[in-house]
Task: structure prediction
Amino acid sequence: MSAVFAIARRETAAYFASPIGWIVLLVFQLMTGWMFLSGLIWYADASAQMMMNPYGGDSMDANSMVLQPLFGNMAVIVLLFSPAVTMRLLAEDTRMKSFELLLTSPISSFQIALGKLLGALGFGVALVLSTAHFVLILRWLGDIDTGILMTNYLNFSLMLGMLFAIGLFCSALTENQVVALALAFSANLLLFIFGWAAAGMEAGTAKEVIEYISMVSHVEQMGKGLIHIKDLAYYLTFIGFALFATTQRVEAMRWR
Result:
């Protein structure tokens, strides 16, 4: 596994050695910070109004009014920006011909794919840690349910893994980073809009299948603090399939 971690370290370091990583991190911070501040202002205004109603205080809940919307918005932001994070993983190496060194080394195709994915997830850890101050502020201002908080972080981390795995596969399909970005963005968008398509369908097996494929229902369920096996299986299945498909693509490139 030392080869896998060596590839992962190289990829994670590459994000912070190029402008794209810092730009994504900066934009992510600006957008999530603005959404967090907007949620706090809305919660404060609603709390002030509820003080005039002695029977409405119990309806004020920072978990549902600030925490859950924040993570829901973070999911949309990552869905939009993850293709920019993953587009270079294999496409750049292929274009620069440096990928041939990996293909001729005594490293399996699976190790290459896994190392690249872990490298992207290393940058994902930076995205997760960049939201730590939100938690500290919420802890300071009010009572936050630890279970809902941890479930939202688990959901966000699994979603990052899924989107990065899909982006990695798209990057393996081409040596053009722009094409890889477009492919990954299209795949992510389909996973998002499947929920809208299912909403207009009649009840039945087809609707249930499309709803399950859609990312929206899984994000919503775990955002409420609910952990179901089907939601965990959804993320892990996508990660496993994308990693398998990337491995097969790398293997094909090794023998061409």
Notes: Residues 19-50 form the longest helix (32 residues).
